[in-house]
Amino acid sequence: MSTPKIEFRHVGLHYFGPQGETEALRDIGFAVEEGEFVSIVGQSGCGKSTLLSLLCGLIRPTSGEVLIDGEPVTAPSPSVGFMLQQDSLFEWRTILENAVLGPEIRGGDMRAARARAETLLRRYGLEEFKHHRPDQLSGGMRQRAALARTMCLEPDILLLDEPFSALDFQTRLSIADEIGNIIRREGKTAILVTHDIPEAIAMADRVIVLSRRPGRVKAVHSISFPSAGGERPSAFKARDAEEFSQLFKTVWGELEVHVE
Ligand SMILES: Nc1ncnc2c1ncn2[C@@H]1O[C@H](COP(=O)(O)OP(=O)(O)OP(=O)(O)O)[C@@H](O)[C@H]1O
C-alpha cells in the first residue's frame, strides 16, 4: 500500500494557558490519499482549526503523530498552502503583485513566479483584472485571486478553512463549485473545514464528522454520487443527487445540534 499523503495517528492535543488546560483533540486517526478532497465538519470549538494548525506545523501534538508523506510534521512546510475566510489580499498591490507575493517573500525566482502567476490568473478568469487593485474586484473574484496567490507557491496540499463563509449565498455556491473543480483538475490534496454541511458533502470525496470537544472522529462518509459520464459531478450538480439529502440528514444527526 502506498504511503498516505496525510496521516493523523492517535493524535491528542491539549492547550495550556493562564486559564488552565483545554483538551481540544483526543485520539484522532485518519489518512488522506494523494489527490483526495476531504471535508471536516463539527460543532464550534470541536478542534477543526486545531487540526489544520497541526498539519501546517504551527503547533505540535501532545500525543500521537501528524505525518505528511510519511514524515512527522515538525515545522511549517512549503508543500502546504492555505485558503482562509478572509482573502487577506494586500489592497495597495495589484492582483498580479498579490499573486506573486509568496515567491517574493520566499526569495524565489521572480521571473518564473510571474509567468506562473500570469498563467494561473488566465486560468482563473482574472487576466483582464491582473493590473486592478483588490477593491475593484467582487468577493468571488477576490477569492479566485487568493487561490492564485496560494497556487503560485505550488503546494501539494491545500488547507481550506471556511474559505467561502464571507461570501453571499449565490457567490458562495458558484465559487465553491469553481474552486472545487480547479483543485481537482490540478490534482491537489485538499482538506476543507466548514460549518456548511451541504458544502462539505458537495465538494468532498469524504466527509469526516468530529464529536464535540474534545474532538474525536465520530463518523466518516465516503461520497460517491453517480453521474452520466461516470466522473464525479461538480459540487453544484452533486446537490441534485438523490443521496445528497439523505447524507445531509445523517451528518446533521451526527453533529447533535440542539436548537432551543
Ligand atoms: N491557543 C489556544 N489556547 C487555548 N485554547 C485554545 C487555543 N486555540 C483553541 N483553543 C480551544 O481549543 C478548542 C478547539 O478550538 P478550535 O479553534 O480548533 O475549534 P474549531 O472547531 O475550529 O471552532 P470554530 O468552528 O468555532 O472555529 C476550543 O475549546 C478553543 O477554545
From TrEMBL:
Keyword ATP-binding attributed: yes
Statement: the UniProt record of this protein carries the keyword Hydrolase: no
Protein name: ABC transporter ATP-binding protein
Molecular functions (GO terms): ATP binding; ATP hydrolysis activity
Keyword tags: ATP-binding, Nucleotide-binding, Transport
Xref: SUPFAM superfamilies: P-loop containing nucleoside triphosphate hydrolases (SSF52540)
UniProt cross-references to InterPro entries, sorted A to Z: AAA+_ATPase, ABC_transporter-like_ATP-bd, ABC_transporter-like_CS, ABC_transporter_ATP-bind, P-loop_NTPase
Family: Belongs to the ABC transporter superfamily.
Superkingdom of the source species: Bacteria
Positions of the ABC transporter domain: 8-237
